[in-house]
Amino acid sequence: MTPTLLSKVEPPLGRMFSFLGKGYLQLLRTKLNHLDIDRNYYALVLIESFEGEVTQQELALLLDSDKVSIVRVIDYLSEKGYVTRTRNTDDRRKYSLILTEKAKKALPEIRKCFAEINEIALKGLRNSQISELTDVIKIIKNNITENIQTL
Amino acid sequence: MTPTLLSKVEPPLGRMFSFLGKGYLQLLRTKLNHLDIDRNYYALVLIESFEGEVTQQELALLLDSDKVSIVRVIDYLSEKGYVTRTRNTDDRRKYSLILTEKAKKALPEIRKCFAEINEIALKGLRNSQISELTDVIKIIKNNITENIQTL
DNA sequence: AATAAATAGTTAACACTGTAAACTATTTAT
DNA sequence: ATAAATAGTTTACAGTGTTAACTATTTATT
Fold this sequence. Notes:
The structure is a homodimer. Chain A is mostly helical. Chain A is built from six helices and two strands; from the N terminus they run H-H-H-H-E-E-H-H. The longest helix of chain A has 23 residues, at 127-149. Chain A binds a DNA duplex through residues 39, 55-57, 65-72, 85, 88, 91-95.
């Protein structure tokens, strides 16, 4: 393989997206590696934004996930002391997810990291390009989800 | 959780990218589910484009992966009869990866599927938006990889 | 009121993925 | 001749995605 051949092949869009997704996560982990959790940061952000009113099932929807995976997420976050499950008194099948003080203390920094990584990733792009990107990504997401529905 | 709350939270860019990457893969698998392989399609495309001249180590570079993972990929593709390993006579540590007839027959369709999924995903976008997207993605990829180097 | 169906969450199982360490065989450098 | 580097393999372990079967509870049906 000659040196130039590496540039001969353009990775397809799907691989690019996966690569960027992994890169984001890796940066996040690194920036937050002084915390005692190394994943599920965004789950915490979501739980915070619905403080006291979100159940595991709803979190599954918000994370494009399923209830089985969410059990693992909440098990992890509660083992680490970031979240507690509280039985919903109205419907005792449900748990309300409640942030601990530890989580509330960590969250400003977590949110700041999300913003910092955006800044890093989008460096050198004009504002018009960034807003165009978010629009385009939404369109692609819709195109893909529509097409997955019809399988 | 009220119905409108679902739209209250914007998933961060990194999650969006991961989601799109997974969606692409899922569409690919579905479109190609009559083949007896359900992954590593792009590895085949790469091997084809370097026909007879690519080693596992080089494939690892091309796939942003590592040699251990590539052993699994090539084990899988050779079990399924798509690839054979042939010892390189110049350097007997290396294997040249060779496509079988079965793989050569499947590849036009595989490549066609990549193109079809692009069409699906990019539907409704203007050509200018598509070329801007690829530029922007490359910039983001560079920003992320640069930043990961410096860890 | 009794029963059936649906929902929230859990557990267990299995295959796949990412990563690191230790290993063999071979080639390159000293 | 020996040491160091490289290509590939094996093993191990943690994490992820997915399915099926399960309990407890609520809602719908008769």
